[in-house]
Amino acid sequence: MSDNLSLKAFVVLMKASKSLQEQVKKDISNHGMKTSDFAVLEALYHKGKQTVREISEAVLINTGSITYVIDKLENKNYVERRHCSEDRRVVYIHITEEGKQIMDEIFPKHQKVIEQMFNGVNSEELQTTINVLKRVGQKPSNQ
Q1: What was the pLDDT predicted at 137?
Q2: Would 143 be classed as within a structural domain?
C-alpha cells in the first residue's frame, strides 16, 4: 500500500513540478529572458559574487552551459568577471549595476507570480511541504 502511495506522490510531484516550471518559464520570458539567464542573475542578485562552479551548483546547470550564459549576460552588461586578488586562477562573477537595476524591476513581479502559484495554500501547509520535500530530496537514491 505505501509503495502505491509513494508512486502516486512521485507522479503528483512530477506533474506539479512541470506545471510550476512552465509557469515560471512563461513569466520569465515575458521579461525577455531565458530561464537560465534569470537563474544566474537571481543567484548573483541575492548571494553576491560567486565563482562559475558556485553558480552552477546553485542553479543546477552544468558549468559548460553556465559559461555560455555568463558570456551572454556579460555582453548585455548584466554581469562581469573579476579575478580574485589573492588567487588569479579564481574568477568571480559579479552582477553589474545594470544587472541589479533589471532585477530590481523584474524580481518583485516574478515573486508575485510565484506567490500566486501557491494561492490557497496556507503557511502551515507550505512549511510542511518544504520539510517533506527536503527529507525526500536528502535521501540517498539506493534506499
Answers
A1: 86
A2: no
Residue 129 sits in which domain range? Answer: 2-138
Query: pLDDT for 74-96, tens place per residue?
Result: 999 999 999 988 888 889 999 99
Where is average pLDDT lowest: 57-61, 93-97, 105-109, 114-118? Answer: 57-61
Comparing CA positions, the residue from 38, 39, 64 lying closest to residue 53 is 64
Q: How far is CA 91 from the centre of its chain?
A: 21
Q: Which of 81, 22, 23 is nearest to 55 (CA)?
A: 81
- Domain CATH number, residue 32: 1.10.10.10
d(CA 20, CA 107): 17
Answer whether residue 121 is part of any domain. Answer: yes
Considering only CA atoms, which of 85, 88, 94 is closest in space to residue 54? 94
> In the chain, how many domains are there?
1
